[in-house]
Specification:
alpha+beta; 2 helices; two-stranded antiparallel sheet; two-stranded antiparallel ribbon; 4 strands; single chain
Length: 153
């Protein structure tokens, strides 16, 4: 079997230097967050090819921030377009309203003219009708004599 190779410089206690890390004190210490016992991550140990053992917490890969999808068209442009459509609808409605009022005026005018023609024709027939009709009032005009401001027939 392959045994790890031992380097004398690594295992020699005289050549071994011990470095003590200096703790870093942050300018603004992070607040303490209470951790529930069930949320402590498991400790993982990895044996490297040269025989060393590295122990640490498993770190989840960093999730990138979700990018908020921007609409293809800005809201202002959509509002302007909707306003234009509404304006065109109002203009179309006003055009139809004026067309309806114009047509109604023409109809009333034609009905008034028709009534005038019919009534005028009826009056003309009454005035210029034939005198041989049996119905009606007969007026006999005779010669009258005025004597001393009195009427004598």
């Amino acid at each position: 079997m392959n045994e790890p190779t031992r380097h004398p410089a690594v295992h020699d206690t005289a050549a071994l230097e011990v470095h003590r890390p200096t703790p870093i004190t942050p300018a603004h210490p992070a607040p303490l967050v209470p951790v529930h016992p069930g949320t402590i991550p498991a400790v993982a140990s990895v044996v490297l090819p040269d025989g060393r053992v590295v122990t640490g917490y498993a770190v989840a890969p960093a999730q990138p921030e979700q990018v908020v999808a921007k609409p293809a068209v800005s809201r202002a442009a959509v509002n302007v377009a909707l306003g234009g459509v509404g304006f065109l609808a109002v203009c179309g409605g006003l055009f139809l309203l004026t067309a309806f009022i114009t047509a109604l005026t023409a109809l009333v005018t034609q009905l008034v003219i028709l009534a005038a023609v019919i009534f005028g024709g009826w009056v003309a027939v009454q005035v210029m009708g034939s005198s041989s009709r049996k119905g009606g009032t007969t007026v006999n005009i005779r010669r009258a004599v005025f004597k001393r401001n009195h009427f004598h027939s």
